[in-house]
């Protein structure tokens, strides 16, 4: 092998490659996805969902997230697609990561937090609309349960218990800054790891009980 430096030609010995050694080349792809502005309808994210569906274990998905939030339905859909993705997902938390966007951020495997990164968590906003009194009451009851279960499920062991109560019962906006995120994210990551281990153990016990029955 020859290498040119300072106009002098230097020759190195060829690299020895044993004939009985097998080599395997792996190709990986990094997808960089800007996710900015209000979260709209599900169909607006076909390209992102396609990436999440086809990215493999060797790939990386890097989401640049800066959003005030938006559609809870779309947020839930994207979170499920992220959970199914085989690739490692990293979310860069921007200046604004509020409401539904915060849930998308928490679905990642890892995070990039800048000094300007913030996050805001709160209850969902909705209008009961028009119709019979019974219809409006039913809609309100439905939304109350949906909101409560969503917050408890999404932010468990990320928000403190009193913060979850404040968000659900009193409609308080929970603001987090870069130092808060840097403190909480590693703890949340460890909680989620332990949760997955417990889920696998529960599934294995269920299978063993089914086989023994």
Structure summary:
The protein is an alpha/beta fold and 213 residues long. It has helices spanning 46-54, 72-84, 100-106, 133-155, 161-169, 178-212; strands at 2-5, 8-11, 30-36, 60-67, 88-97, 110-113, 118-121, 174-177.
Characterization of this structure:
By secondary structure, this protein is of the alpha/beta class. It has a domain at 29-122 and 173-212: 2-enoyl-CoA Hydratase, Chain A, domain 1 (Alpha-Beta Complex). It has 6 helices and 8 strands; from the N terminus they run E-E-E-H-E-H-E-H-E-E-H-H-E-H. The chain has helices spanning 46-54, 72-84, 100-106, 133-155, 161-169, 178-212; strands spanning 2-5, 8-11, 30-36, 60-67, 88-97, 110-113, 118-121, 174-177. Strands 3-4-5-6 form a 4-stranded parallel beta sheet. A hairpin with a 2-residue loop joins strand 1 and strand 2 (8-11). Residues 1-14 have low confidence and may be disordered.
